[in-house]
Amino acid sequence: MIFWTLLRSAIAGAALLAVSFATQAQVKDVIVDAKGEIPYAIDARNVVARSGTGLCWRTGSWSPAAAGAAMAGQLPAGCECDSDVIPKDKCTTVAAAPAPAAATPTPAAVAPVAKKITLSSKALFGFDKAALTPQGKAAIDRNVIARLSEVGTLQLVTVSGHTDRLGSQQYNQVLSERRAKAVRDYLVQQGVSADKIDAIGFGKTQPVAGVRCADSLGRKKLIECLEPHRRVEVEIKGAN
Predict the structure, then answer these.
(1) Which tens digits make up the pLDDT trace of 225-235?
(2) May I ask which residue range the UniProt record assigns to the signal sequence (predicted)?
(3) What kind and span of H or E run contains 14?
């Protein structure tokens, strides 16, 4: 179980677009050294979490200097995540002497596969609640469990909880984490290995782009208008 602290910087881009095979093939894991301030969200393996489009998830402590100071092996983590703000000379290593040719043949490349599924919190929970309803469990069975086989060999399931802007950041952060954990726990009950699931709460830091709701609407209509922000996103990664 992984719970994330306040993430105050939202990731730009289309979080709901499906990722193409070609894009996925270019993305590699960035494993940071667990020393000092880490300006990116990481999982239990110290691997930087990415969005469906390959963008690294920044924490509220992110800055160009922090991205250049946090190391991922011989190079700063920012060389992979934010190469446009890191000096190029910091992202260059001296090439090692080529190793002798291996006698064994190179194995065939494995094609990565990813699916991203967005579930409305309304379909999963009661308003302002974090306990899955029977209808919510059925929605997960239908939209997530039934699709796990589509990615071949399952590698990782990332469950992220999101809220609307009503209420404090602290309250929404806790609620989003509880909802992500509830979905994760249900997936484990249905047979998904717990060590292949990450649960992350983003609170209200990642609203859906293009949804605009004026406070003048009144509370009931405002809650209805903000519904797209209240969601749980499940990203399934595997390999054929």
Answers:
(1) 999 999 999 99
(2) 1-25
(3) none
Same domain, 85 and 121: no
For residues 14 and 8, what is the distance between their CA atoms, to the nearest angstrom?
18
Kindly state whether residues 36 and 119 are assigned to the same domain: no
Please state the pTM of the whole predicted model: 0.55
Question: pLDDT per residue over 52-91, tens digit each?
Answer: 777 888 887 888 888 888 888 888 888 888 888 888 888 8
Return all residues near 54 (Cβ < 8 A) that are at least 6 apart: 19, 23, 24, 26, 27
Q: Which tokens belong to 10?
A: 């939202």
Q: Are 186 and 214 in contact (CB under 8 A)?
A: no
N-terminal to C-terminal alpha carbon distance within the chain: 27
Specify whether 124 is located in the same domain as 78.
Answer: no
